[in-house]
């Protein structure tokens, strides 16, 4: 295996421009492009806010999973102490507030319930990671991973591409031609 | 003497794909077929794969339907074309974390997976950033990262830090930082077992999509051929070109030994056959004693 002595120090060195806690990265209002046509203002308002929450939960899930990989597969126990994990918790708390003030038009109730479930499960994952035992020996990720996997499934079920709520963003990727050709 | 057989197996494709996606600067030059493939390396008692494709179950199927990917077939069906089963695969090299390379780990229950630590670390960082920077996240499914945790818990995911020689006998892993992705790997098979191999094959991942990335049109600079980087670089085109140079150096500048996974014309350069389901098998080389799977 390669020598780690000269390796970069994980996420901190990986962020030469903006660290996750950089003050210039304050939350911005959602973009208003790409919205579906012929839907009510109420649905659009829901979609705009739901998209923010969806995107943040998606990030927190991916980010937390990445940290768990680094901790488990690379033995990088410092992953649990990185500002990234604290940042993930902050984002999760912000989502809780936004979810609390979001109401869904009746036919989108299920969508909101799924996002709320995803949020609850991410919270359970993050809480399990706060155990002092996580930084010792061979951490048991069972509870964290079970909750994280379930959160991903719930959020996946809440995907709604007409609002830009998709797990994989293809718009600028090598595959985006497919959708253009279908128009 | 050849230790390893190598095949490139198509598992789906995009029928009409912007040429500018595979070749930097090829704007308004039409479309090409973009095969989605993975590679199998068999020999020395091992069955290894370079990438695993994506999973067409539930959300993967949605992606395929929505973005024009056609004719997806499972690893069970695809590997059967060369007489193998997913359970036979003991080693997988994940060149990078895009969904069509890292998205189907669940179908290989006995494999150990190798990926660059920095590839995981920098995706993790990118996911912490706000929306206006999310261009970096294109083609990454956080679900693949979640599944990676399960692999790690099972001790089946190895994060490596930089290049690694002899990960399997006479197979080396190389890395190109900040190129197609944050830490894209390429795989070198030294088929004569020599350190300075005269029979090396390079499996390029997405560092090279098509032959023209290696031998592209150079007329504008009065050359027959020049390196032209792929259309999608998360990092820099410069790093892609230098990665191409590194790959070419390893094969003594014999271009046909650098294998581009998304190249439809592999069928013209190597013995190939089209299966009844319309997908291609290309046979790059055969180990001593191995029988052809395309004749």
Automatic annotation (TrEMBL), chain A:
Protein name: Uncharacterized protein
UniProtKB/TrEMBL annotation, chain B:
Keywords: Hydrolase, Metal-binding, Zinc
SMART domains (UniProt xref): Lactamase_B (SM00849)
InterPro entries named among the record's database cross-references: MBL_superfamily_lactonases (IPR051013), Metallo-B-lactamas (IPR001279), RibonucZ/Hydroxyglut_hydro (IPR036866)
Residue spans crossing the bilayer: none
CDD domains in the record: AHL_lactonase_MBL-fold
One protein family per Pfam: Lactamase_B
Domain Metallo-beta-lactamase: 34-262
Cofactor: Zn(2+)
Family assignment from sequence similarity: Belongs to the metallo-beta-lactamase superfamily.
PANTHER family: METALLO-HYDROLASE RV2300C-RELATED (PTHR42978:SF7), QUORUM-QUENCHING LACTONASE YTNP-RELATED-RELATED (PTHR42978)
Protein name (Swiss-Prot/TrEMBL): Glyoxylase-like metal-dependent hydrolase (Beta-lactamase superfamily II)
The species this protein was found in: Labrys monachus
Lineage: Bacteria, Pseudomonadati, Pseudomonadota, Alphaproteobacteria, Hyphomicrobiales
């Amino acid at each position: 295996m390669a020598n780690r002595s000269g390796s970069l120090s994980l996420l901190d060195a990986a962020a030469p421009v903006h660290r996750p806690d950089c003050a210039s990265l304050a939350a911005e209002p959602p973009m208003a492009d790409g919205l579906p046509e012929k839907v009510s203002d109420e649905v659009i308002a829901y979609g705009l806010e739901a998209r923010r929450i969806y995107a943040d939960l998606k990030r927190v899930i991916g980010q937390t999973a990445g940290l768990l990989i680094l901790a488990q597969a690379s033995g990088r126990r410092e992953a649990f102490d990185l500002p990234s994990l604290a940042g993930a918790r902050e984002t999760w708390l912000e989502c809780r507030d936004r979810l609390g003030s979001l109401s869904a038009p009746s036919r989108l109730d299920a969508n909101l319930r799924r996002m709320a479930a995803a949020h609850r499960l991410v919270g359970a994952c993050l809480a399990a990671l706060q155990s002092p035992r996580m930084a010792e020996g061979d951490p048991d990720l069972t509870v964290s991973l079970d909750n994280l996997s379930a959160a991903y499934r719930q959020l996946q079920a809440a995907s709604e591409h007409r609002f830009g709520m998709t797990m994989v963003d293809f718009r600028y990727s090598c595959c985006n031609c497919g959708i253009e050709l279908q128009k | 003497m050849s230790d390893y057989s190598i095949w490139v197996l198509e598992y789906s494709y995009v029928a009409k794909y912007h040429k500018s996606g595979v070749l930097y600067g090829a704007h308004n030059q039409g479309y090409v077929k973009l095969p989605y493939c993975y590679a199998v390396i068999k020999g020395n008692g091992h069955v290894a794969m370079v990438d695993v494709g994506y999973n067409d179950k539930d959300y993967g199927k949605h992606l395929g339907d929505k973005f024009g990917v056609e004719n997806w077939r499972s690893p069970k069906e695809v590997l059967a074309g060369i007489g193998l089963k997913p359970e036979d695969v003991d080693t997988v090299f994940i060149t990078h974390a895009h969904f069509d390379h890292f998205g189907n780990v669940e179908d290989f229950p006995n494999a150990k997976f190798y990926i660059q630590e920095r590839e995981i670390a920098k995706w993790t960082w990118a996911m912490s950033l706000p929306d206006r920077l999310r261009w970096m996240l294109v083609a990454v499914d956080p679900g693949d990262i979640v599944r990676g945790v399960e692999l790690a818990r099972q001790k089946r995911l190895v994060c490596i830090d930089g290049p690694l020689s002899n990960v399997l006998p006479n197979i080396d892993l190389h890395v190109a930082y900040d190129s197609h992705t944050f830490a894209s790997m390429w795989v070198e098979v030294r088929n004569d077992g020599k350190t300075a191999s005269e029979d090396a094959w390079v499996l390029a991942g997405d560092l090279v999509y098509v032959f023209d990335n290696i031998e592209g049109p150079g007329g504008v600079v009065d050359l027959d051929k020049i390196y032209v980087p792929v259309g999608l670089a998360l990092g820099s085109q410069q790093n892609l070109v230098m990665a191409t140079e590194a790959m070419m150096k390893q094969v003594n500048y014999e271009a046909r030994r650098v294998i581009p996974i998304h190249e439809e014309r592999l069928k013209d350069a190597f013995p190939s056959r089209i299966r009844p389901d319309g997908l291609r098998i290309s046979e790059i080389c055969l180990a001593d004693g191995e029988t052809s799977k395309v004749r």
